[in-house]
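Listing S7. Sequence submitted for prediction.
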Amino acid sequence: MNFNRKKYIRLIATLIITVCFSTGCSNNSSKEASSSIKEVSNFIDKNHEYVNLNQKISNKSFSIMDEDIKKNGVILTGEDHATSKSFKVQLALLIYLNKKYKLKYSLAKLPACTKGNKTSFK
């Protein structure tokens, strides 16, 4: 009896693994993913603004977002991973939002080494 139970459990486990692998590896999902990547790339090509970190960051750098900011109460920004210069852009964006739209609160995901350094807008 115990031997049959072990066989049954192995068979079920094998079936589950087979189903998981077979559904996740279809050609359709890879075609959809590549078209999504193209759509995102096209969107970014049309809706971006170059920020030169070697010059003073101007308000013009962020004005591309003005129409969306006016229509929304919450602004989500992307994350940065292993980019040392992005903090300068993040700070400039916060200053811009505070001056132009009276931003009061910002919830930021900061690296552990900057948790103690908080900036207050008044």
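Caption to Listing S7: primary sequence and predicted structure tokens for the chain studied. Residues 2-24 form the longest helix (23 residues). The CA atoms of residues 91 and 119 lie 9 Å apart.
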